[in-house]
């Protein structure tokens, strides 16, 4: 079988796979959780096989037409476009420009965030409000009654007096309400963080597969050898000022600042942990000690995330690792 015939068969199989994903319901609610992991086969195929613009258009048109004919659902088409098609070409572009892996992940995440948030706005217009559903789930958590909390406290601490249980129960109820309110406010930041994680997995999977046969692709070690731009620290500082704003206009800035600060603080925690792992991996010590050290770092990330975040901020400002990749 010649190469042209193999190429045509490969395209037909790939098209069939993405149409079948619509048939089995992946492009409904499940597809949202897979943003943008389902783009992996497309990205690998398009990197390995150079297609013309016309061939790309025909390829995507056939998939979209197939999804529509098998599901008769425009939302499924939108989910495919947002969850697979657009991420494919975003990642392809950054690979073509030969960006380092950390830059590919970050730039692709920010690009897809604009697309996905726009998609959620469109879905709200079409009658599907994801933010309202998210708020409803959190409200159900807030709906936990004070009696339920007090019953739990009695089981856990039978020696407590009635007045102590009532006081602790009220404090826990207020704490739960405060946490839930904060989680509702950082809805946009949570979406972007989810995209950052899934895009990171996407790029790592794609790069690992491609690098097995072609060492010209970036090394995964780049993920341990980068730092954030110093501008990120400045933006974090400004966002904290915005959080302290008062008044009606101030409330809007406060919510925006809260989302930006939450995203950047989490990002500094991630980069701080990766920086520590990078330092540990280059240290001339026993491999077993390195493994224990890595486990300790991630335990520290869960126990004292702000300490790791502070380390990430210092690494960004002073670049004491002398890394050359800046995101």
From TrEMBL:
Keywords: Membrane, Transmembrane, Transmembrane helix. The keyword Transmembrane helix applies. The chain crosses the membrane at residues 12-45, 57-83, 104-126, 186-210, 231-247, 253-279, 291-312. This is DUF2232 domain-containing protein.
């Amino acid at each position: 079988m010649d190469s042209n015939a193999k190429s045509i068969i490969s395209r037909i199989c790939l098209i069939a796979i993405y149409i079948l994903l619509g048939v089995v319901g992946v492009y409904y609610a499940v597809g949202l959780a897979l943003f943008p992991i389902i783009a992996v086969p497309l990205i690998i195929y398009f990197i390995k096989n150079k297609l013309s613009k016309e061939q790309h258009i025909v390829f995507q048109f056939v998939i979209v037409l197939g999804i529509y004919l098998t599901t008769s659902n425009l939302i499924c088409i939108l989910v495919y476009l947002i969850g697979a098609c657009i991420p494919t070409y975003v990642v392809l572009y950054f690979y073509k420009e030969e960006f380092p892996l950390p830059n590919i992940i970050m730039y692709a995440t920010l690009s897809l965030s604009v697309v996905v948030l726009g998609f959620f706005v469109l879905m709200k217009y079409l009658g599907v409000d994801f933010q309202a559903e998210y708020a409803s789930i959190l409200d159900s958590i807030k709906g936990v009654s004070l009696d339920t909390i007090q019953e739990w406290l009695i089981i856990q601490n039978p020696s407590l007096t009635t007045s102590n249980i009532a006081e602790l129960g009220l404090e826990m109820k207020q704490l739960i309400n405060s946490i839930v309110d904060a989680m509702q406010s950082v809805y946009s930041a949570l979406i972007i963080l989810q995209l950052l994680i899934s895009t990171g997995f996407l790029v790592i999977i794609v790069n690992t597969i491609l690098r097995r046969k072609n060492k010209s692709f970036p090394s995964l070690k780049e993920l341990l050898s980068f730092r954030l731009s110093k501008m990120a620290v400045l933006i974090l500082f400004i966002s904290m000022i915005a959080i302290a704003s008062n008044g009606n206009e101030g409330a809007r800035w406060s919510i925006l600042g809260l989302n930006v600060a939450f995203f950047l603080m989490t990002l500094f925690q991630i980069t701080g942990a990766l920086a520590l792992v990078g330092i540990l991996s280059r240290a001339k010590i026993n491999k077993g000690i390195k493994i224990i050290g890595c486990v300790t770092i991630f335990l520290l990330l869960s126990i004292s995330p702000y300490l790791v975040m502070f380390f990430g901020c210092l690494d960004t400002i002073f670049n004491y690792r002398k890394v050359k990749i800046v995101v």
